Structure formats: structure tokens, C-alpha cells
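Backbones bend. To wit:
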Amino acid sequence: MDRIARLQCAGGISAAVAALLIPATAWAQDAAPAAAAAPPTPDTGDTAWMLVSSALVLLMTPGLALFYGGMARSKNILNMLMQSFAAMAIVTLVWVIAGYSVAFAPGNDFFGNASYMGLGDVGQGVFTLNGVSTTIPHQVFMIYQMMFAIITPALISGAIAERMKFGAYVVFIAAWSLLVYSPLAHMVWGEGGYLLKLGALDFAGGTVVHISSGISALVLAIMLGKRRLAPSEDVRPHNLPMTLIGTGLLWFGWFGFNAGSATASNGLAGSAFVVTHVAAATAALVWILIEWVTIKKPTALGFATGAVAGLVAITPASGFVSPISAIAIGFGVSCVSYVAIKMKSRLGYDDTLDVFGVHCIGGIWGALATGLFADKAVNAAVANNGLLLGGGGTLLGKQFIGVLVALAMGGIGTLVIAGIIKAVSGIRASTEDEEVGLDVSQHGEEGYHGGTSDTATLTGFGMASHGGSPVSSGAPSTAAPSAT
């Protein structure tokens, strides 16, 4: 009887335990879907690629400094370098405080709201942009876009080289970054942006970066007026090897600029990488072939200019076109930009280092070429193939609207901002400051001590394809500047 009682007791305990385990098991099964619905974590491969791309794009700004610096005269080399490096510091703070929120926070057609001011709500988790969940931390996307915001106003410095007050330049790029760049970035890429909803395509910044900075450079150059130059003054580049080194750094960094715009380490990033290189190589080769025909000499400066023009033109199309289309884009940009630069001396404006001819004209060609060559087979985001791929003219028309918006934003914005600065403090360096050089007059330093003078060892061939001036004007001008 005792044994039977013990067995009955054990059976009761087992039943009780089973009764406890069954609900627990059921609870665990119910909890499994909840665990599956946990917030997604960033993809480590995509995050690593975007961090590398951010660093590559940042490197482009020092590369730009060398590219421009080599084309300036030696007495202005530090000022040229400082204009790019200052942008790295100034635009960083503008972007953190307000620029990123204006560009990428949810908002209306033209501006984001204030939710990302001071990087509020910009954290380490993935986020949703334009209804699509990303695979990278929000902070990583923010810092990547910051590098675009940095180099864009720095591009303008090439047009106003050797004659703008450094203080005026600092105020101008801070205001321009917030009031021109950030709203335009919102319209093209941001939540609810006008051009995004329209269906205009800009993969990596043809309108946002190049057209806007190029037209702004032209407006500011005209407002400043021509450099004060003696009739016999030599204005050829003082250090073309420096310019070529800058070209190499720009070319290298541009892979982050274009391929990084896929925001993932995937096939689209690889495609953008390939067409970026192909377009740059094509444009550089075509440019020196044009020189070989017209001036009988393929120049180093021509190669550098062509390569950058090719990189500019492929930027808006890089995520949408095939390598064969990239060859056509690179070929076309060298033709249109070469003609634009040759026209500069006839039109009489002093865009010192040809920002308008390379970036604005090249950017316009690239934006419109996207409407010619965009291919659904490359990117499913293409709603209609380009005109030359049988998609009709719908996309080309949208691209044209995007070009007009970028021209209006950059041109009018620059006119207003520079006009206010001119009225308050002036924007033009004095005659004495220009004569001694902006290195000494604006920074109290010299780039070279006891080095080669501007005229001692220059060969002259480097300027032939640019009309005979720092990059393309004709005979040096002695006309008084229009801005003081």
C-alpha cells in the first residue's frame, strides 16, 4: 500500500508540473512572434561601406584644395587651400545645428521640419527615409550627407579665387549652405521633396551639388568683378603637379561620392563605381584629344579638367546608366565644357578656375543625359527608360525641370546672400591686398619662402586649351572690379 501511495503521489506531482509547463510553453510560443518583430539592427557590411564612403567624400575637399591651389598664383596658394579647409569646419557646424534637419527631416515640398535640429532623433538605429527602411544607422547616413554639404560650397571658391575677402567668404558659405544647399537637397532627396515627388532623378548630386555651385560661382564672380591685373602679369598655374595630385584625390574620393549613394554594399554600388570610372577616363581622354587637334599639345591641365568634368557629368546618372552610356556621357561633357570654357573670354567674366564651365555646364549635361540614358535594367527605381532607350521624353522633361530649379536656387540665392554681405561689409579685397597676395593680406602667412616666382619656370603649354588665363580667360584684364 505504501508503494501504491508513493506512486499515486508521484503521478500527482508529475501532473502538476505538466500543468505548469504547458502554459509556460504556450507563452514561449506566443512570445516568439514578438521577438521576431523586434526593431531591425543595422547591417554591418552596409554600415562599414558607408563609413568608408563618408571618409572618401571628405577626402575630396582637401583634394579640391590641391586641385584649385595648383592653378592659383603662388602668392594666393594658402588662401585657396584655406577656402576649402574652412568649409570643412564651418559647414560641419551648420549641418549639425540646422542644415541636416532642413534637408532630410520630414516636411513640405521645400524644407524639412525642425525634428532633427541639433541632431535630435538622429541615433544609432536604422531609420526610414521616403518610406523605405534603411540598413544603416541614422548617424552614419547623416555624416555621409554632411560630406556632400561640405564640398559643395567649397567648389564655388574656384570662381572667386585671388580677390574675395576671407571673412566675407566665411559668412557667405555658412549662409549659402543653410539657405541654398539644404533646401535643394530636401527637394531632390528629402522626405516629401518637390523634385523627388515629381520623379526627377539625381543619384549623387548633379543638381544639388554641381549645378547649384556652378551657377552660384558665376553669379559671385560677376558680382566681384575681374581681378586687378597688370597687362604683363603672369597668371598661369604656379604648380600643375599639385593640380594633378588633387585630381587623383578627387577621382579616388568620387567613388564614395557616387557608389556610396547606393547607401548599401550591393550590386548597385558596384555599378555606380564602374560607370564613374569609365566616364572620368573617357572625358579625360577626349579632352586631350580635342587639345591635340586644336593646339597640337595634350596638356596635363587639360587631362585634369577633362577627368573632373567626366566625374561631374556622371554623378546624377551614376546609379541609373550602363557602362556604354557612361562612355557617351563622358564624351559629351568634354565637348560641351570645352566650348563653355573657350567662350569665357568672349563673354568677359572672370570665373578664375572655370567652375561654371566644368560644374554647371557639366552638371546640366549630366542631368539631361540621365533623361537620355536611364535604364530600368540598371535600377528598378527608374519609372521610365531614358529617351534613347525607348522610354520617350517623359523623364527628360522632368530632368529639365530639375535643372531649372537648381539654377534658380543657386543663382537667386547667391545674388541675395552676397548682396547683403556686400552692403554690410564688402566682399572684395582691396587693391593693395590683391597686389601683395591674399596669403599675406588675409592670413599673415606665405605659402613659400624663397621659392620659385610665378614667372620663373612656367612653360605656358598648360594654359593653351583654356584661352590663356588662369584657366581660361584671354588677355589679363585691367578693368576695375564691380564689387568692393
Q: What stands out?
A: The first strand starts at residue 126 and ends at 129. Residues 45-466 form a domain with the Ammonium transporter fold fold (CATH 1.10.3430.10).
